[in-house]
């Protein structure tokens, strides 16, 4: 009887350890894939800056009334009125 109880506890502990390991694996993989989406987005659109002509991803520059600038400084230099 004592032996059966021992194996039941062992199975319970193994199950808990396995579940927590599985959760760690899933959350780790999810975090990695979301990071990858940010750094290597194949659909990231590259635009030329209206001021200096440098090509930059849309997320790194500023878009004002359909005109793209590589930075807020170049938008200002080109005469764009910044809201903030
Ligand atoms: Zn520029």
TrEMBL record:
InterPro entries, alphabetized: PP0621-like
UniProt superkingdom: Bacteria
NCBIfam families reported in the protein's UniProt record: PP0621_fam
UniProt name for this protein: Deaminase
Provenance organism: Limnobacter litoralis
């Amino acid at each position: 009887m004592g032996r059966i109880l021992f194996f039941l506890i062992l199975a319970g502990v193994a199950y808990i350890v396995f579940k927590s390991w599985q959760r760690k694996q899933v959350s780790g993989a999810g975090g990695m894939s979301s990071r990858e989406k940010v750094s290597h987005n194949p659909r990231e659109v590259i635009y030329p800056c209206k001021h200096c002509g440098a090509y930059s991803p849309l997320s790194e520059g500023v878009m004002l009334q359909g005109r793209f600038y590589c930075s807020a400084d170049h938008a200002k230099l080109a005469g764009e009125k910044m809201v903030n």
